[in-house]
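User: Here's a chain of 519 residues. Predict its fold as tokens.
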Amino acid sequence: MPSAAPCALVIFGASGDLSKLKLVPAVYELAREKLLPPDFALIGYARTAMTDDEYRKDCRKAIEENARSLKGKKPIDESIWKYLEQRIFYCAGQYDQVESFTTLNQKLTQVDKSCNTAGNRLFYISTPPNVFEPIISNLGKSGCAVRHANKSPYHRVIIEKPFGKDGASARQLNATCLATLGEEQVYRIDHYLGKETVQNLMVLRFANSIFEPIWNYKYIDHVQITVSETVNADDRAGYYDNSGATRDMIQNHIFQIMALVAMEPPSALDAQAIRDEKVKVYRSIRPIRQNQVDQFAVRGQYDAGRYNDGKKDIETSGYLKAKGVKEGSRTETFSAIKVFIDNWRWSGMPFYIRTGKALNKKLSEVVVRFRSPPTTLFQKQCEAPVFPNDLVIKIAPDEGIDWRLNGKVPGGTLNIQSVALDFFYKSAFHKEPPEAYERLIFDCMLGDQTLFIRGDEVEAAWNIIDPIELGWLESKLPPQQYVPGSWGPQRSMDLIELDGRRWFQTDQAGADPIIACSL
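Assistant: Prediction complete.
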């Protein structure tokens, strides 16, 4: 692994959940893997008043409860903690006051000297989106971060999602970023791109000769992308009511996965070449006009009911009765869309996308369904002897790949059953994949933007979503209610089934019937 240069990492929103659940534990794991530079410092920044020692205690608790290697059970490695503890600091301040950032700059100057961080600064903005712009502007006004062109010392900014709530706000936020920093200093993060299986998509496609010749509409019938959650939005409905499933998941996470599945081979494995090809995918997507939205997109809201999330039973009064939801809200907790990519590779072949809250199972997966082979050889013995061939790319919770083929069941009759050739990262490599945030923070330290989103990517993705959102504002068709713990509203089933296809269900995948054929 390459080594990172000395640096100071500033976490804005240090008292928030993301910092405690993911960011601080990721720093510990990087130290455990010996990927942190020896000269490193962590500075937490938030409105909450706190001393350095109090923040250090909070960080230790976050690590003990959430670090991947500890899982709340193993004791913290005291030698690693001793190294980190003396390099953790805290700075309290407002996000919209330049004076607070001047204080932060003074703290950073002190840390540069005491921890030998060489003036390299990495700012992670993990705050509510309404303060993204003030933070970026004040970083520039206070001198905390200055524009540079890949010079040392470096100043880089990681910005969490959502990057805008529509195309206009995304363009405004991009303009704010580029008024202070260069594009090479801005790291728009999507943690899905840090997952091992998502990174493996390019290796799967371009490092295996078996796939590339058949990776097109001639051999693939369609592609499904599902990101489902068992949790509901009851506890954060006030925030969620201003976004919805389409903005929250499809515009960023799912579109990033789709672009990696659909893109052409890049000319090189560098940030510029890969992101160029992803942008081409977005620009090739057939626009869904406002008057077509009910034909190509489905929205739903979970109703009242009791369901099990895989661990415990959950009771919900339904999204419309959740605290903070506006009366008669049409914000969707479930979204499904049918997308066509109008280029040579995917001409006329649909991509089906769905995501939602309070669904049957927590999973993220891509299903590439290949066209069925001719059945002439078997049609005299049985009506439907072959199942579709599916390549199932499992992103979460179990990272791996299933390749579903047809095989004969041993015996005197011709019984055909769908069988799976699979591998999982844990069993194949005998190593647990790192958390996405570990990889992404480390890449930012290295200055590698490959797994981050470029400004024109964000705007191109919003250009697809904006007409759908506008169409739903004008549509007379409200979100369809669905039973919590199900796979969503009936109209989402119709979206694919009226095309003669069906959603792939992980819990049904191994239960395809055996077709008994007489010889």
